[in-house]
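Note to self: user wants both folds in one dump. Writing first protein now.
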Amino acid sequence: MTRPMVAEISATALRHNVAVVRQRAPHARIMAAVKANAYGHDVTLCAPVLAEAGVDAFAVASLEEAETLHALRLERPICILGGPFAAEEVRNAAARDYLLVIHEQRQLRWLETHAADVALRLFVKVDTGMHRLGFAPDRLSAVFAALRHYPRWRVLGLMSHLARSDTPDDLFNRQQADVFAEAMACFDGSTAGQHSLANSGGVLALPFTHHRWVRPGLMLYGLSPFAGRSGSEIGLQPVLSWRSAVVATRNLTPGDWLGYGATWQSPAHCRVGVVAAGYGDGYPRHLGMGAPITVAGQAARILGRVSMDMLSVDLTEVQAEIDAPVVLMGAGGAAVEVLAARLGTIPYELSCRIQARVPRRLVP
């Protein structure tokens, strides 16, 4: 690799963030969410560190993601949060002993047709008010009645998802928790009691949502689920440091235009650096003009439009030459949360945007 682009992934930060989960939810088991390629951080790098740090299981979104994780041989249960997406996935999942989440009647029919005589471990997802996935509470009696016909199926527990844990004071969190508690009271005896509700926001701020399993995702990568607060402000360490370098410099005179669309005109003599990074790498084009960036350890700003492979930065007040290191986002640079807020989006989206052509490298 000669292009000066890398996303560094900190093993120390991953381990620290797992310890924060343990501190916040000391009586729960940790099911680490590593879906979407570990939220863009590279599951093949992150999952082994998370296993070594003591997480108890992993959560993914699909069978394909489960297979990638299985190949790492980390000896931890793998839970497919979306359950089977097609009938033929059922036996494949059973052969690997993946934990399946079922959330609709069609999936139950697939299990009955293709795995009636197969040992399965299941979670039953209940819709507690998010109205995305899950059986309505008044359907659970029928679901459990059907499950009882298959003695080789073990229902580990109920599962649901919090819709507003990013706003912990919202009463909707308590409403969802109450619906979940009522379902647990009714069906706990039909399960192994391994219920799960809390995501990162729940782990950090809603202890009444901590049950046998917590499912942290974003916080494992050092990012905050709460608007207006960075991960570092709540005791987390950023795992990602997305880095590049200055590959050219330009001296502009007053009136010179810069970049695609000639959207920025120099008001005075200035010095510009060209950085090897662009929207083709996943750096958002709409961050653009004025976005914070760090060059040679100094605060700088982006000028003009972000192009596919390059962006321009103001070096007028920055001591930096060609090959000077640049931090696009993350540790050592602008916090992912800050850039997400600038775009009017969430940290999840920014980290997941980083493209496969950006090499990831595990650092201590």
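First done. Writing the second protein, which came from a different request thread.
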Amino acid sequence: MRVAMPILLLLCTGYPPLCFGQNLPDPPLVVIDPGHGGVDSGAIGTQGVLEKDIVLKVAQEMVRLNREIHGGALELYLTRYADTLISLSDRTGLAKALKAYAYVSIHCNQARRIGAQGIEVFVPEGGGRFTETSLQLAHAIRQNLNQHLGLKDRGVKMANFLVLQETTQLCPSVLVELGFLSNRVEEEHLKKKPSIAAIALVVLETLITYFNEGNNK
């Protein structure tokens, strides 16, 4: 598995970002939902890596990169900022209260088959006001993670996850599975700081480009 050198060089040297556009006068508000937390560890890797820790680090890194590299191009809110358990209703309730322009839930995968690997992006099943824009965002995220980081692409799928169903009429919403902690190679990759930073940057800049191209409310 490779990590895109241009992204790592960007983080180290301050080169121009991978994707960019004009700053929006009114930064779109995006809710980032790091899954699980507290007593709910989520997936547990072969080496004991916890899903709840990886996804929180990715979300926190998105906040940092948005501030330090993109000057606050997005207004980001996390459903949790620490190792705490937040109910599913409170996660989606935050997006509703803030009238989010997009909702991105971040997770890691797990499977009985240790060879299973790759990223998946889910959108709400059953249709809704933002089905088309959710699909556009989902395809952009999985394409960029695959092209820039070399992560195996398992495609975009529909699911009835509660966090997606509860936000489907509010804004574009996606659930991103960053890889399989049950796969030793992917677990090793996901626990590294440069990998976390690279993933955070790709997802962040995909969102920025998405809104700069006019895919907002």
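Dump finished. Worth passing along: The first helix runs from residue 5 to 13.
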